[in-house]
């Protein structure tokens, strides 16, 4: 059982030590700490160790606010004081941009998300002993599920649903061994998409409808495994306000995970637009989802919103049409059929907000495109570093960069990077 000195914090928020020349990841340990740890496994060429005792605690070690920490994989850094935590998050963006060749990029302050405000969660479901149902995030580094009694990051209205959901799912045979629950807190209340490993029969649909009525849930959708969702219970309309437009998102729709995170991202995107937009200016919003960015952008210019998911394109088109917003929603797979420099000619700005893997195919063409502004919204600094490097090779420079801590106490970081020519 070696004693280790923690030299740094890795990308996943684990302490990093060296042992006999080898890297050791030590979850739960903080920079500067001396810990007694047991080697428990491997991660690539590195070893992984579990803390047995903190011999010399960091002065920045604090009491975690949630009783499920550190077992629950939803959070990794509740035990760290806020100031070094925030510095570490902000530095992630600086490091990603430095790796891409933009060491001097002007970096804004970290936009913060308060605790107890996350409105979107993808929760794992497990059938436990005696038919009980476990609901929560996966445990750190494993497949087991932490059965949440509370949560320090979720909106309390979602936390309040956990017990009643556990109780109703106990009586739903469609959850045989495992499944998931995506819950989006909309303007109209919680919107639930259940995925189960068995078929949802009529009696269980009635139970879910009763549960929806009791909990003020306008819609529960259901899907078997990764199949397409269908409505299991619909008691009212679903809507979320994006910009000043009410959108009815499809079940399980992607939404920015917290209102504060969304507001920070939208503000940074709008601030990144060219100062003077011509009267007939047009903006392209790539990976547009349900219009989180397209609809606020449409208050400044005409927007063409490109998105791969048909349901989201339909939701955005319907909402924009009804509200008279200047958005044209277009279904397009931007990995298989990225927009070419010719397609992008004439746009005053391009906004792109790709999924976690980034957008290498689209970025290769954006690198060559002659557009005044390119605004890249990222949820993965590693993908951003790779894509920004390609843009740098194409002659783009960084005008501004805003780090956004949307997933409080997790190692994740969102960012908005504005590129100019
Ligand atoms: C990070 S989300 C951003 C959505 C939206 N901009 C927002 O802020 O809510 C990424 C979006 O890209 C879409 N997407 C994923 N792969 C795609 C592809 N190959 N082509 C087009 N859209 C894709 C997803 O459906 C999702 O809506």
TrEMBL record:
Signal peptide: none
Name this polypeptide is given: tRNA (Uracil-5-)-methyltransferase
Residues binding S-adenosyl-L-methionine, per UniProt: 256, 287, 307, 353
Family to which this protein belongs: Belongs to the class I-like SAM-binding methyltransferase superfamily. RNA M5U methyltransferase family.
Entry annotation: catalytic residues: 379
Source taxon at top rank: Bacteria
Entry keywords, A to Z: 4Fe-4S, Iron, Iron-sulfur, Metal-binding, Methyltransferase, S-adenosyl-L-methionine, Transferase
TRAM domain span: 1-53
